[in-house]
Structure formats: structure tokens, C-alpha cells
Amino acid sequence: MKALKIIGIILLVLVGLFLIVAAFLPSKMHIEESVVINKPASLIFKQINSFENFVKWSPFQEMDPEMVNTFEGPKMGVGAKNIWKSKKSGDGSMTILESVPYSKVTSSLDIGMEGATNYFEFIEEQGGTKVTWGVDFPKLSYPGERYGGLMMPGMMKPIFTKGLENLKKLAEAMPDPPVLQVTMIPEKAVLSVIDSCSWSEIEMKMGQMFGEIMALQPKAKFEFAGAPMSRYLKWDEVNQFTVFENCVPIDREVSGKGRVQYKVLPATRAVMGTHFGAYEKTMYMYVAMDEYVKEFGLEETGGPIEEYITDPMSEPDTAKWQTNIYFPVK
User: In angstroms, rounded to a whole number, what is the distance separating the alpha carbons of residues 24 and 147?
Assistant: First the structure.
């Protein structure tokens, strides 16, 4: 009996020490790791702002190839949600709370620990981008999670390092994205023609429309004041049909003739990108600009505009043809 009493006292002392020590352990935990990736932040941001891209390099997915992911909400940005089920890593979910192109993505982390958040920060440096992956546990419960917090850095940092290595390898193998910016298209006085056709007839129609505009120049004696443009007023993907306007900037007001009309296009705020190459190979630019508009929460105010900087008649090399593409936005 005396031995049992002694053992009981020892156990009480140990439990007491366990609880006392826990009271002095940190009640929150912050863990982060960083890597420099030799790519622009805009490209790396897309691999994190979309959970469908995130799982392609996630170290947790690599640790458990049988992990099942379900995606809810928008495909990217605030509200996007990833729910996973894993026998090795446990079940949980993440939801994007903050998405700041191209500097930060913060997500709630639902793994049974109150208030946990996961974040990525991007800082562009010369020749690359510093990417920081971090996690915050602001409320480690007493006493169990506080002891668990002692082991977290040793467990999580190698996982973060591996994930960032995967991300670096993936991103550096990808082509650089188009350089996009928000700019102002200045007011332009133009001669224009509006027409419609099926997609297969666009090239032929453009030649006719620009030809009608150019035919006025010898008599009206205006000077050209900029590169010719096409403004797409309607784009019907179901029926592969478009309504568009061809415009040529000129230096002064002149009288139109037939369907060639003089007008002044107002100054317009727009997202702009530049394509070099054949006209039929611009789709990548349209995709990138559409993503840019969504990432920055912009609102489009009209159809796209193409500005043909290079004259194909004087430059036979299609790789040198420059086309500026604009998405009008508020």
C-alpha cells in the first residue's frame, strides 16, 4: 500500500509538472520558409491562387498520392476552397481569404486547430521572386496543442522546404507569362467601318474594310495618325459569329463616304498586352488578359481592341509582327 501511495504521489507530481510547464509554453506558433524562384511573381501567384494548380506541386499530395481533393467555389481567388481526405495526413480544408495580385495569398486552415491560417508572400527581386510559405497557429489549446507546438517547426519546415522546391521546379520549367498593364488609350479621331461575319471570314472582311477606308485618302488628303485597329463589338462563340469595327486614326476631321464614317473614339482605360507573331496565334494573350481582369477584380466595359503596329506589307517575317491588345475596363 505504501508503494502504491508513493507511486500515486509521483504521478500527481508529474501531472502537475506537465500542466505547470504547459502554462509557460507558447500559446501560438509561427512557421515559415522561403525560396527564390527565377520567374516573375505573376506566374508563381497563379500556382497558388488556384487550388487546382496548388495540388500539382503540394508536398502533402506527394506524401500521399492517394489523397482525394475536392474543389468548391470559384476556380481562383477569394472563396476558392480545397477539401482533402487523406489516410496519411488526415482530413481538412483550406479556403482563400485574401488574394492580392501578385503579392500575397492567405487561406484559412481547417485541420482542427482554432484560427489556423496558411499564407504565401511574393517579393520580386532582380531576376526572380522570393516566395515565403508560412503558417500561423494563434490559439494553441492548453495543454496538448502547446506541447505539440514544440514539435511543429521540426515537422513542418522540411515539408515547406520540399513544397517550395517542387514549386520552383514547376515554375522555372514554364514559359514566362505575357507582360500586362493597365493603361489609357488616348482619344482618337478615326475613319471606321462596321461589319459582321463568321469567324472564318474575318481576314477577308478586314481586307475589304480597310481597303474602303484607304480609298478615301487620295481625295480627302488626310494624314494617318496611328496604327489601324479592330474593335470587337460582339463575339458569339456558339455561332462563331462576330460584329467588329475597323478603324484608322487620322489627323483631322473629314467627310465620310458610304459606310466609312468619321468619329472620335473617347479615351479609354484598358488592360494592355503586346503580341509578337502571326495574328491567328493571339489566343494565349486573351487567356492571360482574362485571368488578369479576374485576379484584379476589374470590370470590362467593352469588347477587345487589336492595334496592328506592324505593316505586314513591309515586314514579311510574321515573328516580328506586333499587335497591341486591349481589354477596356472601368
Answer: 10
